[in-house]
Design goal:
The complex is a heterotrimer of chains A (about 375), B (about 290) and C (about 550). Chain A has about 375 residues and is of the alpha+beta class. In chain A, about 45% of the residues lie in helices and about 15% in strands. Chain A contains 10 helices and 10 strands. In chain A, the strands form 2 sheets. Chain A has a 5-stranded mixed sheet. About 0% of the residues of chain A have low confidence. In chain B, helix 1 runs antiparallel to helix 2 and helix 5 packs antiparallel against helix 6. The radius of gyration of chain B is 23 Å and the shape is globular. Chain B starts with 13 loop residues before the first helix and ends with a helix. The relative contact order of chain B is 0.10. Chain C has one domain: Cytochrome c oxidase-like, subunit I domain (Cytochrome C Oxidase, Chain A, Up-down Bundle). In chain C, about 75% of the residues are buried. Chain C is globular and about 65 Å long. Chain C is mostly helical and about 550 residues long. Classes of the chains: A alpha+beta (about 375), B mainly alpha (about 290), C mainly alpha (about 550). Chains in contact: A-B, A-C, B-C. The complex binds heme-A (2 copies), dinuclear copper ion and copper (II) ion (CU). One heme-A binds next to helix 2, helix 3, helix 14 and helix 16 of chain C.
């Protein structure tokens, strides 16, 4: 759309919405019972406010019009009336009680995460989400997949600009799913408007929430708590599937995970590790250390040409496995598997002119991670 | 009273100089903490603050001696001091609030109790207890043991309570014009204050040397030091104020009926005393 | 509650108070810059505060324009996300602590002594100290933008651990700057309370005081109660950053959410600190231009007190989604909703004051009326946010941004502007240029709504706050908001123009500059001489 056309479209939107309150102007109704209840609450309070507003502003504009000095109005002198003052204290209280009752019921419902059929651990990390299907041995990270070239404007922006990820969270419909939410670094907030779930992830604590989705589909949201540099680039995508499809998907993922676990035991080739390492690096590390490893000092050290890194492999491994406490560098012992860690370290050791020829085997990493 | 009404002081250079001095000290403090190289700036800032305060109070004292202050001015000072102490109460309330919150909510949650007990999944070996000797993250240093309230802390409590009594006696003496009595009891109060500070110093030494209670030692160390530390700073300031009062009493300042500086110092001292009682109960005893 | 004009002239134009031995008195009142820097006069200090505040409004406004310019279209165009975050943070901090709060303190300095018949503030030297701490503080704060690693980038609410473990190194300076600003506020508030409680003209009871004085009395109480808590929490941050404590670190047994509790225990009363004095100003202006006594004076006072007391019990409504236990969630929802009641009382009182008045529409009145309407809209969205389940959808979206700009910009800022237009004749002796003032008003009203109304829609449609780039469906709303922001910003140049013109000349104003005005300040000449009420006026209340 051309810039100059926008106001026109906006104006048209304003007019049409006056009648029907079009979808994209208002809170979505969503696809869970809770989201519907919340939407209902929202509309009820909204209309109550509109009515009060019309009455109050009506009285005000009537007075302004009717008692203008230019119209010759003479001022009266009353300045108190206990009866009416009591009235306009009590009536709002009653209105508020009327709002509080349904709100309380909805809230109680939202807090009841019992009897869930599936537990999903959601971990916020600068700046991606990690999903873990508890007890299923399936876990993965979910990163923004919009190319940087679209953000910079060198390329046309896609339909789901900034709201698309490499791997969405896959959930079954019609099952109650409990979310356990936490964070590895700062506070994030996991939010999908259509599910009416927004919950902060607090490092060191776990918050509970739950969802039961009514319709299959793809639901998009974003991190809703300022979490640093790329807070704006931390989308959430949920793919809700029919139950059978979900079960198949989960079984498939389990198989892949098992294969990966077996990979720890075998010798890996340099090429394999480099290829795997590059993809891990680009999806996990590049947001801080930059795609070419140049970092952005002083906040994020460069890895390319980093002398200590080149000379001291153990130190390097330790940084990646255990992180740097008190700094933004996360510990990856729990969030990447040994193969991934071995691959990314090998990659870092050999990319961008580092050329140390060092190869780290997954088994070595596994030894360091286990005890 | 020599004038027509409420005394409005003439222009003064102390406010602006005081602001700049504070700015200097804060900039120094920041530079010291961040870049580690600004002790000189801090010293200059602190000295300037002290100098400005000295000159400022000197002006106030001489105005008072000149009889420029009437009873309304006296009330202004009273309201001013009273609300200042209220602000101090709220300052400590923040730290007490933190202590209560941690003890009543955060630690039980981390240990698996209460509304957010699921958090214990992240800290499988953590046991909720207070005093917290084993922080959830085992790499955080931990205190080995904590102080028994019935040794040095109890002594300190007795010292401070006594000092409040001696100060009251001193004040009564001032009101009845008995200067030497006032002076002696005030000197006694200052001494008690110094003893308190000394014992607190010993306790800190013990904490670091033998108990493993340090600033880094988890939330126990954090709350312990922020509460006792800020209280200690207040005792030091209070003692300095009392020393100034002592000097002024010895110089024959103050009148039997009008001596608000002395009275304000007493308020301050009693306030510091009350804070200690709260500390004694909630930091040491329970 | 019109006070009788005092019998004897309350004014002494002499430039001296007591010239008792030794200490040089007003006799040698310095001139030039020293007059301003060293002053102890409440009017001069008031002027200093107002000038400082206006300057900072522009600085904060320019930061907002950087934000709005980046958000003009999707994509990253002008600034890096890192700098964007610094702009958002600094905008919030500067507007709250350096624009709105000092503006109200400036008005308090100027008007409270005049309204209660006092010769000056209770502690004049302290008064000047409170002021000069501000430029020092904000120089330090703004200088962090130039430090390595950049300035504060964690929002004006600086949640730990983003503001501790993950913060730029300049954060220590940010904390110290905030400490200085806090000292300034506390000392200023102490002075105001002492003045109001101790310096009223003989015969003026508490319930005779103009509402601006009442609202400030209560505001000052709030300030003294909560600024120290802010000082406490930033001290804990300082310790976590520099001394390895673990207040906000679960690993050591602390809790990041503890930070939020402490911050909002300060932060929520803080937002009422920014609105109560505005209520006071509007309560002076509406009766003046309706030529009718304020309806429900007593209930206004009680309502203000009720809002202030309730404000201590609602802080966690900013934390509905951090995972509070259910009981806490319910308690904070109910207590927050209750605030609508006393606030409603105020709105109804104002409207009833207009009813059967004799209303004229000078610029102060226009701003006051716009305040009533637009603040109420902001209040309604506040009430919607208070419904905890619904807040799960609103929280941290532009709906919240819309809410608080409606209560702050056409709320606090409009009330300040109304106050400035109302009292300019008293300060300068000239009426502001009414034509320009009306242009300023209409541009501002249009600009404000253009900027902030679409934010409601953007928020409901799902746009989070504090993001430098956004999905395509939010483009239209942001486009309009940005145009509105530049339009509103540019209109504020008119405000400066009106003030400058008014200082330099204009239609002469009599002592009682507005026909319907009643309070004591209108009994002294315009411009108010440097020293007023050196002999207290005798105040006779007309019984209500
Ligand atoms: C001047 C400042 C000011 C004022 C006056 C208010 C007033 C109110 N605010 Fe607002 N608020 C802010 C400044 C302010 N707020 C700021 C800055 C933030 C964001 C901070 C941040 O995160 O950065 C915020 C955020 C905020 C939140 C958190 C939202 C979130 O982050 O998720 C909530 C939630 O409850 C809230 C509620 C309210 C309520 C209920 C009022 C009430 O006081 C409003 C009462 C008024 C009315 C209701 C209208 C008039 C009444 C009637 C006509 C009577 C009849 C009406 C009824 C019975 C409905 N505010
Ligand atoms: C009293 C407080 C106050 C005031 C007056 C304002 C005024 C304005 N605010 Fe804001 N704002 C806050 C308090 C305030 N704000 C707070 C607390 C936050 C939250 C911060 C956070 O998330 O941490 C916030 C956040 C905030 C955001 C969200 C940022 C984000 O989430 O990333 C936005 C976005 O549009 C915004 C915009 C504006 C605009 C356009 C104005 C305008 O009204 C400004 C108008 C003024 C000027 C523009 C300057 C004067 C004019 C000139 C300099 C002349 C030159 C100009 C031209 C020629 C055009 N503000
Ligand atoms: Cu993660 Cu914002
Ligand atoms: Cu609030």
């Amino acid at each position: 759309m051309r810039l100059w056309q926008r106001p026109l479209v906006f104006g048209a939107g304003l007019l049409s919405s006056a009648a029907c309150f079009a979808q994209s102007w208002n809170m979505p109704i969503g696809v869970t019972n809770v989201s519907r209840e919340i939407h209902g609450l929202h509309m009820t309070i909204f209309w109550i406010c509109v009515v009060i507003g019309v009455l109050v502003f009506g009285a005000m504009f009537y007075s302004l019009f009717r008692y203008r000095q230019s119209r010759g109005a003479k001022a009266a002198h009353f300045h108190e009336n206990t009866k009416i003052e009591i009235l306009w204290t009590v009536i709002p209280v009653l209105i508020l009680v009327g709002m509080a009752i349904p709100a309380t019921a909805t809230l109680k419902n939202m807090y009841d995460a019992s009897d869930a059929e599936l537990d999903v651990m959601i971990t916020g990390q600068q700046w991606r989400w990690r999903y873990e299907y508890l007890g299923e041995n399936v876990a993965f990270n979910s990163n923004l997949s919009t190319p940087r070239s679209q953000i910079g404007g060198e390329e046309d922006r896609g339909e789901h600009y900034l709201l698309e990820v490499d791997e969405p969270l896959v959930l079954p419909i019609n099952r109650k799913i409990r979310f356990l939410m936490t964070s590895d670094d700062v506070i994030h907030s996991w939010w999908v408007p259509d599910l009416a779930v927004k919950q902060d992830t607090i490092p060191g604590f776990i918050n509970e929430n739950w969802v039961k989705i009514n319709e299959p589909g793809i639901y998009r949201g974003q991190c809703a708590e300022l979490c640093g540099l790329d807070h704006g680039f931390m989308p959430v995508v949920v793919q809700a599937m029919e139950e059978n499809a979900f079960d198949d998907w989960l079984a498939e993922r389990k198989k892949v995970a098992e294969q990966e676990a077996q990979g720890v035991g075998r010798e890996w080739e340099m090429d394999e590790l480099m290829a795997r390492g590059e993809s891990v690096y680009q999806s996990i590390c590049a947001s801080c250390h930059q795609p070419e490893g140049q970092g952005s000092p002083p906040a994020f050290p460069s890895l390319a040409g980093n002398q200590q890194l080149i000379n001291d492999l153990d130190w390097h491994l330790d940084k990646v496995i255990n992180g740097v406490s008190g700094a933004a560098m996360p510990a990856f012992r729990n969030t990447l598997n040994p193969v991934e860690i071995a691959a990314v370290v090998t990659y870092t050791q050999n990319a961008w002119g580092n050329e140390t020829e060092e190869i780290v085997q997954p088994a070595r990493v596994a030894d360091q991670v286990e005890p | 009273m020599s004038s027509t009404g409420y005394y409005v002081p003439p222009t003064s250079r102390w406010p602006i100089l005081g602001s700049l001095a504070i700015g200097l000290m804060m900039a120094g403090l920041g530079a010291q903490l961040v870049y580690g190289s600004a002790t000189l700036l801090i010293v200059i800032g602190a000295l300037s603050i002290i100098a400005v305060m000295t000159f400022w109070f000197r002006d106030v004292i001489s105005e008072s001696h000149l009889g420029l202050y009437d009873s309304q001015m006296d009330r202004s000072f009273r309201w001013g001091m009273g609300w200042f102490i209220f602000s101090e109460v709220m300052f400590f309330a923040a730290f007490f609030g933190a202590l209560f919150y941690v003890r009543m909510f955060a630690i039980p949650w981390l240990g698996g109790e209460g509304a957010k007990g699921v958090s214990a999944l992240l800290w499988p070996n953590f046991i909720a207890e207070w005093p917290l000797l084993n922080p959830p993250d085992t790499s955080v240093p931990s205190p080995e043991q904590v102080f028994s309230p019935w040794q040095l802390p109890l002594v300190n409590t007795l010292l401070l309570v006594t000092s409040s009594i001696t100060l009251t006696i001193s004040h009564e003496a001032l009101k009845t014009g008995n200067r030497s009595l006032c002076r002696n009891w005030l000197a006694g109060t200052v001494l008690l204050g110094c003893c308190f500070i000394f014992i607190q110093g010993v306790e800190y030494y013990e904490a670091y040397q033998h108990y493993g209670i340090t600033l880094e030692a988890g939330i126990f160390g954090s709350t312990f030091f922020i509460l006792t530390g800020f209280h200690g700073v207040h005792v030091i300031i209070g003692t300095l104020i009392l020393i100034v009062m002592l000097a002024r009493v010895m110089r024959g300042h103050f009148e039997d009926s009008q001596h608000f500086a002395f009275e304000a110092s007493c308020w301050y001292w009693h306030f510091v005393d009350v804070v200690w009682l709260g500390l004694f109960i909630f930091v040491y005893v329970v | 509650m019109a006070p009788k004009i005092p019998q004897q002239s309350p004014l002494q134009h002499s430039d001296t108070v007591a010239t008792a031995g030794g200490i040089p008195q007003h006799a040698a009142h310095p001139t030039g810059w020293r007059r301003w820097v060293l002053t102890t006069n409440h009017k001069e200090i008031g002027t200093l505060y107002l000038i400082f505040s206006l300057t900072m409004f522009f600085v904060g406004g320019i930061f907002a324009l950087v934000v709005r310019a980046e958000l003009f279209q999707p994509g990253l165009q002008l600034v890096e996300p890192e700098f964007f975050n610094q702009m958002t943070t600094m905008h919030g901090l500067i507007m709250v602590f350096a624009a709105v709060m000092p503006a109200f303190t400036g008005l308090a300095n100027w008007m409270i002594p005049l309204q209660i018949g006092a010769p000056d503030m209770a502690l004049p030297r302290l008064n000047n100290f409170s002021f000069w701490l501000l430029p020092v503080s904000f120089t330090l704060l703004l200088s962090t933008l130039l430090m390595p690693g950049g300035g504060p980038n964690f929002g004006w609410t600086f949640y730990a651990p983003l503001s501790t473990t993950y913060a730029p190194s300049s954060t220590t300076f940010f904390i110290l700057a905030l400490h200085i600003a806090g000292i300034s506020s506390i000392l200023g508030a102490i002075n105001i309370i002492a003045t109001i409680l101790n310096m009223r003209a003989p015969g003026m009871r508490l319930m005779d005081m103009p509402l601006f004085v009442w609202t400030w009395l209560i505001t000052a109480f709030l300030l003294i109660a909560v600024m120290p808590v802010l000082a406490g929490v930033i001290t804990m941050m300082l310790m976590d950053i520099n001394f390895g404590t673990s207040f906000f670190d679960a690993g050591g047994g602390g809790d990041p959410v503890l930070f939020q509790h402490l911050f909002w225990f300060f932060g929520h009363p803080e937002v009422y600190i920014m609105i109560l004095p505005a209520f006071g100003i509007v309560s002076a202006i509406i009766p003046t231009f309706a030529r009718k006594p304020l309806f429900g004076y007593a209930s206004m006072v009680y309502a203000t007190a009720a809002i202030a007391l309730l404000s201590f019990l609602v802080w966690a409504h900013h934390m509905f989604v951090v995972g509070l236990p259910l009981v806490a969630e319910l308690f904070f929802m109910y207590s927050t909703m209750l605030i609508a009641v006393p606030t409603g009382v105020k709105i109804f009182n104002w409207v009833t004051t207009l009813f059967r008045g004799s209303i004229s529409f000078e610029s102060p009145m226009l701003f006051a009326l716009a305040f009533v309407v637009l603040f109420t809209i902001g209040g309604f969205s506040g009430l919607m946010l208070a419904i905890s389940p619904a807040d799960f959808q609103y929280h941290d979206t532009y709906f919240v941004v819309a809410h608080f700009h409606y209560v702050l910009v056409p709320g606090a800022i409009f009330a300040i502007m109304a106050g400035v237009y109302y009292w300019l004749p008293k300060w300068t002796g000239h009426y502001p240029n009414e034509t320009l003032a009306k242009w300023h008003f209409w541009f501002s009203v249009i600009g404000v709504n253009l900027t902030f109304f679409p934010m409601h829609f953007a928020g409901l449609a799902g746009m989070p706050r504090r993001i430098p780039d956004y999905a395509l469906q939010f483009a239209d709303f942001n486009f309009v908001s940005s145009i509105g922001a530049f339009f509103f910003g540019a209109s504020q140049l008119l405000f400066v123009l009106v003030i400058v013109l008014c200082v330099r000349g204009g239609k002469k104003a009599p002592a009682k500059a507005w026909e319907g005005a009643v309070d004591l300040e209108w009994t002294v000449p315009s411009p108010a001489p440097l020293h007023t009420f050196e002999t207290p006026p005798v105040f006779q209340s007309t019984d209500k």
